[in-house]
């Protein structure tokens, strides 16, 4: 498995990478600072120096991917994915997942201040931090925060604090405020919000306690192979969710997939019968009369009866509704297996 981690400044990306390394044996990979894909001085997240040293550093994302492909049975993680193109390259492989790490603004600011103090650098004001992270997330016009080299964006594996402090001193514009750096490579990077929206999994780092972060990461069941390749149930449920988007029911959109021996026979969704007025055009009296939830649902038994009548042997559902008990009784009497789908943490809209 190969996991790429994205997130805003000081969200805790490297802490997550470190936890993956400690608890699951993931190897941290990185890109050289001048690779174009790796962290550059236009990104205020470069102050995140607390992460572990990459075990291997590459010149390009393609070289990194080639290495992982040759060792695809092992686990790898990288925080150096900052472009849509880079993510697209990594997604060519079936063993790649993109994980986003998010954290509240004030918590991220406090972490940034703490790290500036650790480096004996003058921290930015809250307003400066907000402006800089807005630039990072949305490319709004604002200066960037000072550049600090980190273990993940330098070709050197040195852990010498003096070198880091010297780098900080070199960025100072005045005794009171560091110099704000601009880099012409900004056009190579993507707004962070775009990368966050592309993620397969997400985690909220809203505590200063690493134990809390670990429990949140553990709850993702990150090494579950179904996250890479969905189970048959998950695959068919994705199709049912997609079919539901065609529904125009004013109460609740529902989709279904009819399967025989793991082959899709048909898909469908709820609504008014063929050639009748659609529900959202007034065709369903129950929906358009604002009937209270739970009333007039006896018609839903028609679906259960039809399912029994056509010889369906098993029904897998995602969410419950008001007629569960009566429907379950119909299926039980007819010998139809009924069970709820156990979902994974992966987003249902990641169908690629």
TrEMBL record:
GO annotation (BP), single: nucleobase-containing compound metabolic process
Ranges where the CMP/dCMP-type deaminase domain occurs: 231-338
UniProt entry tagged with the keyword Hydrolase: yes
Highest taxon of the lineage: Eukaryota
Chain coiled-coil ranges: none
Keyword annotations from UniProtKB, A to Z: Hydrolase, Nucleotide biosynthesis
GO cellular component terms given for this protein: cytoplasm
GO MF annotation terms: dCMP deaminase activity
Pfam families: dCMP_cyt_deam_1
EC number: 3.5.4.12
PANTHER family: DEOXYCYTIDYLATE DEAMINASE, DEOXYCYTIDYLATE DEAMINASE-RELATED
Protein name: dCMP deaminase
Provenance organism: Podila minutissima
Name of the gene: DCD1
